[in-house]
Task: structure prediction
Amino acid sequence: MSKPTISYKNYRFPPQIIAHAAWLYFRFPLSPRLVEEMLLERGIVVSYETIRRWGRKFDLAYAKQLRRKKP
Result:
């Protein structure tokens, strides 16, 4: 089976920011508002609603990657 590909086409933010926000959201038990605050501290202005949408869009792909990386 091939690795699921995540397409970041047509998004306003670079793939690195989307991936970091999704990683924070899924790896730690953080709400979208907390992820928004953490990114804001780094100078990245993203609404919590955008983070929630990314979570719904990329949930299965990121969950599979996180499960695969655990020892």
User: Anything to note?
Assistant: The chain has a mean pLDDT of 84.
